[in-house]
Design a protein that fits this description.
InterPro entries: LabA, NYN. Helices cover about 30% and strands about 30% of the residues. The protein has about 210 residues and is of the alpha/beta class. The strands form 3 sheets. A 6-stranded parallel sheet has the order 3-2-1-6-7-8. A two-stranded antiparallel ribbon has the order 4-5.
């Protein structure tokens, strides 16, 4: 019997979250990420891991909700969290000259690119699924085509997100706009017990 094709998923957490937010699918924030992406695989494919790239919000409430989501997903050994960071930046108003303090997420696209290329070089998978519409991810896909041409690269576009350039470079695409029922099917339980026995609950804001 032929071995199953190994699949690794790379989720651009910001692209994914804001795609869900644009559709007002709040209940889908509380998502079993491994279960969700495993749903799309064929019988001859095997999910190796889901890599989720994000950064910690500076807002305490957002940080706490995000942490609960990550802790719940970490119960599955196939979930791998890779964090970047927020950097404080100053924006000058061109009308009044006033300074606005804001935060900008950094390093995510670089970390995704590095991980994709590392896995491709080590031949850890036969199929890479990129969950993003960020065209900054085109260079690593182009490199994979050069040194590991047998590897397939698919792109799943988060809701209300799309990149024609990324689409044209891929072996196939899927738009998650129409996957609401699949999202609902893979919402985590209301209460999740962690390996240490501690129980976390879905945030009220995500109901």
């Amino acid at each position: 019997m032929e071995d199953k094709k190994k699949v690794i998923v790379y989720v651009d957490g910001f692209n994914f979250y804001y795609g869900l937010k644009s559709k007002k699918w709040k209940m889908c924030y509380w998502l079993d990420l491994v279960g969700f992406f495993n749903n799309f695989l064929k019988p001859y494919q095997e999910l190796v891991e889901v890599n989720y790239f994000s950064a910690r919000p500076t807002d305490a409430g957002k940080h706490d909700r995000q942490d609960k989501l990550f802790q719940a997903n970490k119960c599955n050994p196939k979930f791998n969290l890779i964090l970047g960071k927020y950097l404080k930046k100053e924006i000058k108003c061109r009308y009044c000259g006033g300074i606005i303090h804001s935060f900008e997420e950094k390093e995510t696209d670089v970390r995704i690119a590095t991980k994709i290329l590392s896995d491709a070089y080590k031949k850890r998978c036969d199929i890479a699924i990129i969950v993003s519409a960020d065209s900054d991810l085109i260079p690593p896909v182009e490199l994979i085509r050069e040194f590991n041409p047998l590897q397939k690269v698919y792109v799943y576009f988060p809701p209300n997100r799309y990149s024609s350039n990324l689409s044209n470079l891929s072996d196939g695409t899927r738009k998650l706009d129409g996957a609401f029922n699949i999202f609902k099917k893979h919402i985590l339980p209301q209460k999740v017990q962690l390996p240490n026995g501690y129980i976390i609950e879905r945030p009220d804001e995500w109901k």
